[in-house]
Amino acid sequence: xKRNILIQLSxxxxxxxxxxxxxxxxxxxxSIDSSTALTNEEGISxxxxxxxxxxxxxxxxxxxxxxxxxxxxDNAIHTGNASHLTNESMNGRNAHFDNWQMSYYAxxxxxxxxxxxxxxxYEEKWKATILGQAYFLRALCYHDLVRVYAYDPTAIIDEYNxxxxxxxxVGVDDISKIGSLKRAPxxxxxxxxxxxxxxxxxxxxxxxxxxxxxxxxxAAVSALYxxxxxxxxxxxxxxxxxxxxLIETKATFSxxxxxxxxxxxxxxxxxxxxxxxxxxxxxxxxxxxxxxxxSRATYDATAFSIQAVVAVDPLFYDLYxxxxxxxxxxxxxxxxxxxxxxxYKFISKNGTPNLDNVPILRLSEVYxxxxxxxxxxxxxxxxxxxxxxxxxxxxxxxxEVSLSGNALxxxxxxxxxxxxxxxxxxxxxxxxxxxxxMKGSGNVLFTDYRIxxxxxxxxxxxxxxxxxxxxx
Length: 472
Description:
two-stranded antiparallel sheet; 6 strands; disordered N terminus
């Protein structure tokens, strides 16, 4: 019953920012009115699950948030085994993230859940748990949108800065409810994300920690808050939220001995928030992270499976110290990929080919976020930044370092590059620092318009207030 409501509600509340009658796609033969589906706990719970399900789409965490961040950056090269992501690897015009539509689907569904819960009369603890998750998911989607389609507050080209993304905060189940699609200022988008995260944390309460890591918890809220604050350049808040995460989370930090094996477990022990994929939710062989990254279908396979299009750049691989345990997750492929280095963080570890849970917020990122934020607060914070940095280094099997100034920052960023490789961070780390992307297929300067993604043409054409990014 819950599954049927989930499917029906998804069909009924799909918002397309495309103009005219296409704004809302409803198939009366396969859907029920959202006002009916969202009037009881079962319907609302199913609707909330559908927001999580949206994140599984290949344009979001099913593939692109991770794989495109590597393909667009200097971490990866294309193997030529298939045409998938070739243009992205070459940073071609219009070859970029394309998360607009699916993100706004998820946001609209979260809005409908929030509206329904607030309009009804429900048991307070249940109500708070639903609201907390919905606010978090909306915040996550908005941050992913604003970091793709807009500059980060820490690095802006004023001449090409056309704002953030449209803020839609009310659920839309008919065309008349669609408001202006004008892009909100970047600061306003971040203010809204902060507000949503504050509401998420206050609603959830510590009792929801048993839902970790596949449902939103207070620890997940705090970890996302730390990430968002880092992108904003709000470094004291990064530290506060990282500290809070470490108090709240039940995730366990991998050791040198368990680092590789932890990545081969269905649920990563470091996961604070991990997107779970059931067998029926397999992204498939064409678009899975497994098929994108590896030529093997499983870790022990010896035969070539399919595609394997995004490989580790040999220049990046050579940066790893030979004694670095993280290097063991990178292996030579098989068959026509035998000359390429492949990343084995996603290798059908759920027991089904092409099916992997995806860690979205991981404990190592929290330490690295805090280290960077401490560095930016000045020399008096260097010792604390070094503590976090050396925690990451020694776990990898490297010796401790004692650095200061720019050398400390560069080492933090390098360890971030090593530890979070192929998890969807590199492109965004370069972008938020205003750095050029230097790669064999052609450099992309930070001043280049390709740093930002193109807003879908139909959306930009549907509303003159929605300003397209520069040079698209």
